[in-house]
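Quick illustration, no need to memorize.
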Amino acid sequence: MAKSVITSQNKIQPSINSTLKEARQAKLVYLDVIGKLHSLYKTLLFSPPQGYRFITAASSWDTVSNSVSQQDAFYSLQMNILARIFPPNLVKAYFEKLKQIPKEAVLTYSAGHLVFRKEPWVVDLEFVTQLTGYKYHHFKRLRAIIERSFASEYCKKIICWTEAGKKTILFNLNPEKFEDKIEVVPLAIQKKNFAKEYNDKAVKLLFVGSANIPDEFEYKGGKEALEAFSILQRKYPNIELVIRSDIPADLYARYADKLKNVKIINGIIPWEQLEQEFKTADIFFYPSHSTPGLAILDALSYELPVVTTGIWANTELVKDGKTGFTVKKSEKVRYYSGNFIPNWSHYPTSKFMRTIKGMVDPLVIKELVEKTSILIEDQALRRKMGKAGRQLADGFSVEQRNFKLKRVLDEALEK
C-alpha cells in the first residue's frame, strides 16, 4: 500500500510543480473595480485566460463605495441624488490618478470606468454611459473626455459585453481615433456537465431575480411574470412557478389570492440549491425590462427555452423561435436615451422605475401569455429549443471567453 501511494505522489508532483511554474510565469493583470466585486468578474480571478493572472485590491474609494452599497438607504442616496450631481465612475478615475498599482502588473483591466494614470489599460463595459455612472446627462456633457481617453496611447482596448454595447460607442462618440480598439468579449458562464431530466406530469416555470443588487423584482419583469402566470394557471392546471427573488410586500399582497402553485424563494440562496431549480425547470420565464445578464445564459445552459422581452441585446441570446421566444417591448416605457443607449434604471425614484411600477402593459401580457402557452402545450418544442439554447450557451463558456480575451490582452500588450 505504501509503495503505491509513493508512486501516485510521484506522478502528481510534476503536475503540481508545472502548475506553480505556470502561475509564476503568468502575466499579472490588475483588476480595477468600483466598490463591490460583481459576480461576473470572479471568473477572471479564479479562471483567467492561459498565461495571465488577475489580482484586485480595494482602494479607499472602493472601500467607502462598497460599504455604502451594503446599506440600501445610503446606496439609494448615492445613486439617485449624488449621481445626478456628479458621475461616480468618472470621479473615481480622477480620484485615483496617483494610485499605485502592483509593480509587477503589466496591464490594468478596468471594470466600467476610465483610467487617467500613465499606464497601459483596457476597459470593459456594459454600454457607454456606464463610464459616467449610467447617467445620460453626464455623458452628453463629458463625452469629449471619454473620446480623448479612448484615443490615448495608454488605452489599449475597449471591451464590450455585447454587440449592442459596441453600437452605443459607435453611435454616440466619434470613434475615428479608437475604433480599431473596440472588441466584443461576451459575458461568460461555466459550462454545465449534466443530463437533462424531464418531468412529464407538470410544467415548471422559473423566474430568477438579481443576485448582485437587491429590490430588482419589478426591474427584472417580476410583475409581468405574476400577471401572466395568473392568466396561464387558469388555462393550464398542471403548471407551477418558482420565483427566486425578493418581492415587494404590496405586490405580493395584491397577487397572493390570485396565484396557486407558486413557490417563492426570498433572498440569495446557495448555488447548489438554485442549480437544482434550474435543472428541474421547463421554461425560463423572464420578461425583463433591462439588458441581458448571466441569468439568461445560465437558463440556456440548463436547456431551458427562454421567454423574455425583445429589447436591446436580449435578442443576441434568445433567438426568437429557436432558443425561446421574445415579446415586444412596451411602447409606454422609454427604454432608450441618445442613440440606442439604454435608459433603464432600477433605482426606485427614477422615472423609469416609476413608469414600470405604475403600469402593466396589457399588450405585453397578451403576447407573453400567447408565446408561453405554445411552450406549455408543446413538449417536443420545449426540448428542441432547450437543446438549441444549450448549444448556443456553450459558445459563452468561460473557456470560449478566455480564448477571445487572451487574444485581446495579447494584442493590448503588443501595442
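DSSP finds 16 helices and 14 strands in the chain.
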